[in-house]
What does this fold into?
Amino acid sequence: MEHELCFDQNPFAAGEVRKFRELRLKLLKLVYKDNEEYLAELTELLDALNSLEYSHKFVREETVGELLAQCCYLVPLANERLVSKFCLLICNLVNKQQLVLVERLETVTEYVVRGLHKCTTWVVFDLLRALGVIVYENTGRLTQYHEDLLGEHGLLIRLCTSQDENVLRAVIQCIENLTIREDCQVRCFRCLLSLLQTPKPTAMETMTHCKLLMCGLKGMQNLLVVTHCLPADALGPLLAVLKVLMFHGLPGCPTNIPLSLYPTPLTQFDPSTSSSAATTVTPKKASNVKKGKKKQAQRKKKGGGEEEGEEEEKPNTEDVYAMSWSKVSSSDSEYSDAEGGVQASRTKNTYSRVRQCAFCSFHALIKATERRVMFGYWTCFIPDSPGEAAMAHTLLAAILKDPSTKSRRAAIAVLTVLLESSRQFLMAAEDSDQYRSAPYTPFSVTLGHMIKEIHTCLLQALSSEASLLAITQIIKCLATLILNVPYQRLQAGLLTAVVTQIPAFISHRDPNICVACLTCLGSVASSQAQPTEVNALLLPPRLTEAPPSEQATASGELSWVLKICVKNTAPSLLLDPAERSSSKTAAVQPLPVRLESLQLLSQLAKSHFGVLRPRLTLIRDLIQLCFMDKDPAVQLHGAKLLDGVSTVVQQQQQQQQEEGEGEAPPALPREPMSKQQMLDLWSPLLAGPVPNLLQTATYEAVKYTLCDCLANVGPSVFALLPREQHILCLTLLLGLASDEDFHVRAAAVRALGVYVRYPCLREDVCFMADAANAVLTALDEQSLVVRAKAAWALGNLSNAIVLNRSHEAFVHGFSDMLLLKLFEVATAASKDSDRVRSNAVRALGNLLRYLPPKSHGEVGLQSEALMFMFAATDSCRFKQTVEAAIESLITNVATGTMKVRWNSCYALGNMLQNEPLLLDSQAADSARMRSKVFRTLAEAVHDCRNFKVRINAALALAVPSRRSHYGSDFVLIWQSLLRALQVLEENSDFTEFRYLNSLIEQIGGSLVHLAAILEADDLSALAKDSQHQALLLCYLEKYKQLIHENHSVSGAQRRTALSEAERNVRSLQPHREEVFLDALSVAFDDCIPDAVELKNPQKSAFVQSYD
It folds into this structure.
């Protein structure tokens, strides 16, 4: 039997092991007999086993299961004294040995449940304790007992009404240890809530009542954590309980629990009516309780036993709100040693644990409740005005004045989780003086006052708190608050007050506080405050007095935030180059501090690049040192910093290329960077650090982040790089496109998709072929992430091919078989997932626009394969592939997500720009396919509920430049556009109406285009549709108004088209159907506008992708 026991090196424990082994063997050999001698021997064995010292673990789980199963056979339920001893043995073996009973579990559980049904009251408590120990972490194996224990007439539910406090506490302990199944959740919730709402009986001791409440609160917390829901009508009553128990045991605080709290300030509980006694419960820890921890398991099994060693109370500090219970020390409190001694101290600690349990349950309740529902109860826990009366008995009062450090930390955790994801609700907050004399206070102003009170409370707590863990939590709570508050709608100063206090803690000896401060500064950089206010906080003092245009470009001064981050990460960079080699190595900060400093720099690069712009060389050197670090986490954060900086630098390039595109984003400096400055950033990095890390990094996240960085080099900077660096970048990316990790492959393919748009690489046939082959391979991947990135790259590749259609060398050098493969793979991808299809149809549209090349001037550019494809007797694979591609586009116009559908419409419009492909009226196949395309677009323009699909369908219908291209579908298209105008107001989706003017302008532009190429033979058919003439006149007036207000180049083009349509209609006046022509003439009257100043159009992201 030696192998069944875990021997301890302690000689005393070894002795206990030998005794246990001997007693176990005797018990296993014992045979049940119905006589006094047997009962005496069994009693002696059980007493001997219970007398052993179980503080050292020496028993295995299988040994316990076998022993307890034998006891179930030997101990008769009729002998309650033996049953009690057996229950004690179960608690000793399972609880004190910290075991989870698995072997013979059902046998032991069945015995205990039968005992609860048969035994009298005095042994029920022991049986319940044993049951709580058995079911802990075993609920999934005991589902057959759920109904018997927790059903409508279940054993535990009946015992919840017991008047015996010990029995009641044991019942709650059992419910707490059970993971309640779905059909028992509401019943158990009501049971626990009723327990918490019941006042303390007069005869019950305070400590006993506290332990009972602790069990109830822990059970409620477990129920909320497991189920993530609660009955709809129980939120208010539970919040009322928690609001009272959050202040349990504190002088002057309420003890009468109201029936409910309400989400409006109408019927609120008045805490001033309170009795002298305190009613509450306490948890074990202020932080989140994890059921898997052994220590908590032991405490749960003990049935809510007392916890020794509550932290020493914080010394008395400045009393901001003059509450009598605020952070008093033990010598000044009403529980002084002279009056209460040790018992008073234990009572005080028990009260504090009750408050901790209440906060932990509140935390779980917030997590389990929908944000918008919980937001309605904010006024119950957060004051909306300053002063002691408003602050009393709120969550902020507990943060400031609770005498227990753990309780204060728990309150801060509750406030933090309450503030998380609250931005959408706080967006309405404002702080205005115009309502101070008003007869009412708008809710937006109330929100503003609440936000100010939270700021005031947290800053006061930060200045007075002595606990390092509490300070860390306060700063993290401030970071969460900053991310969700709309500072631009509030009076200036709140954010400044926060940032003013951060420097006092940012160099603290505790690294957790340093990390929290850096996180808070990152929140400041990402906040909704005005950029000028944030710059004033982050830039050096001398620069904050300068105009904003000079702040971003000033040099010499180093931002205090940048200095701290560099000091934490690479302090040697702050020294002069001559001092770096001679100076001693500075103390290295802990890894979390270094990583958080790099994250803060990345956030500054994205949100406030002007802070880093003056010292971009320093940032580059810092990134190089990060790449040379041996820790992969430092390498990764250095790569993310480079990604953030390079993204903004690339935006600088686009800003220079697109003049008049509007103002630069707030993060960008007013003065653009020169190409030499951009080159100085990239050349040293590409000369060694980046390629070396890409080839040697063992952490895959570093590789794919660096691939994203290479994609941000930008066309103008890439063109200035040496030829060898060109080859190096392309070789690395083409190699990483075959990497083992799919994230790296996806990032490499995406970078190649960026490079194919660079003018210096676009005409390189060899590179385009290599990139095309890499994309084709990626589109055959199993990973959807890789295929989605590859489809996007294929769309960019097809764009580049279209731009090269006028270059004879590229057309002759690009393989026709590779082009055929691109068609086949893109057609297959257009039937893939929606994430792939949206870009696959874009690629098909571009490829169809490129094929076959147009004739330019006297030079006819057409490859032999393409000429063979269009031969009259040919039915080869190429022609079939093109037809399949067109059929796929037609199918995608009517199916898939809206993004797929509008991309398909745009792709068909792209295809229609290739006249030789489909617009040959003499080819029967071309005419049939052309008619099918036109009819599909005509149906989409008036039937689709999405306005962006209809806009792109109307745009595609206006692509053909001649009347002959429309064939017999001209009248159908005209009528479809009029039908689209007729159903314009029938859309019930109000989110689409923001595109209404754009849709009217595009449909009107398409009708104007048709009117400009209208022929006399069409008048008879168009005149039959006379019921739409009034509608046409109405919307053409609206169309003229829209284009007259559009002072961009596109507006000028539409006005020119309108005048051409007017001239064409007037030229048809001598023909028949004068009534219809008169109507059109009236519509096009006065269409030539006065000269206006033209501006470059504001391009949407959608238009940019196809331009």
